[in-house]
Amino acid sequence: MTSSEVWSRAAAERYDAEETEMSSDAVLAPTLAFLAELAGDGRALEFAIGTGRVGVALRERGVPVAGIELSEHMAAVLRRKVDEDTLPVAIGDMTTTAVPGAFTLVYLVYNTITNLLTQDEQVECFRNAARHLEPGGRFVIEVGVPPLRFLPPGQVAVPFDVSERHLGFDTVDLVGQILVSHHLTRDGDDGRYRRDSSRHRYAWPAELDLMARIAGLELECRVADWDGTPFTQDSAKHISVWHKIPSG
């Protein structure tokens, strides 16, 4: 049983409307270019494919894509956009679910690795990616850098969005490496706000690199965004690419 929290029907139905910025050409174009180049002439597998924000668009670029998704409700929204023959999706968790065939690319975007709330499960995610990859194939993760530099002594909360329709802040358990994202979202025009929260296990890049080595993967590159900006100590997130080490 995975520790990941499962998206409800209500959350799945409003997901695309609340993530319009992440679905914009400005965000998607460099993401798709980066992933398509790594996929080459092979197949791509998206862990936690959700409603298909990236997977459907990558398929439209001509890359054969399959997906794994834990929430049947999220997959149902995806299915309204594309049929099973065009983009097959296996319902299950990304640590154990198997998809037939081999892939040149497995990818996991938008902080989704942090949905796995234990180190063991995150290691198994890397192992599952490696099982699906051809020798030399790549595993790509997009994930934020833990915001601990913004925590002065005694403080446990960090705001990440203060706008007219949304207030967002993270609270951090420094011992358990658990971050809880809190959201207050304006729901309609009558002044009401909807409160949501989600738990995440954060990991530093070096810890992810060790997970990769356990799975037989080796770091190829790490950049700060899909445009390839160099990763520095001030980067808010990273795109990391590991390749599968050929056996023998």
Task: List the main descriptive attributes of the protein structure presented here.
248 residues, alpha/beta, Rossmann fold, 2 domains, 7-stranded mixed β-sheet, 4-stranded antiparallel β-sheet, 6 helices, 11 strands, 25% helix, 31% strand, globular, methyltransferase
SSE blueprint:
Layout: H1 9-18, H2 25-39, E1 44-47, H3 55-60, E2 65-69, H4 72-79, E3 89-91, E4 103-108, H5 119-132, E5 133-144, E6 157-162, E7 166-173, E8 178-186, E9 193-201, H6 205-214, E10 217-223, E11 237-244
Parallel strand pairs: 1-2, 1-4, 2-3, 4-5
Antiparallel strand pairs: 5-11, 6-7, 7-8, 8-9, 10-11
Helix pairs in contact: 1-4, 5-6
Description:
With 248 residues, this protein is α/β, with parallel strands linked by helices. Helices cover 25% and strands 31% of the residues. The chain contains six helices and eleven strands. It has a seven-stranded mixed β-sheet, with helices on both faces. A four-stranded antiparallel β-sheet has the order 6-7-8-9, with no helix packed on it. The model has no long low-confidence stretch (mean pLDDT 92).
In short:
InterPro entries: Methyltransf_25 (IPR041698), SAM-dependent_MTases_sf (IPR029063). By secondary structure, the protein is α/β, with parallel strands linked by helices.
What gyration radius follows from the Cα positions, in whole Å?
18 Å
DSSP summary, beta strand count: 11
CATH class of the largest domain, named Alpha Beta
Structural class: alpha/beta
What name goes with the CATH superfamily of the largest domain?
A: Vaccinia Virus protein VP39
Distance between the termini: 34 Å
Question: What is the number of independent domains?
Answer: 2
Sequence of secondary-structure elements: HHEHEHEEHEEEEEHEE
Q: DSSP helix count?
A: 6
Portion in beta strands: 25-35%
In CATH terms, what is the architecture of the largest domain? 3-Layer(aba) Sandwich
Helix content: 25-40%
Largest sheet: 7 strands, mixed
CATH fold category name of the largest domain: Rossmann fold
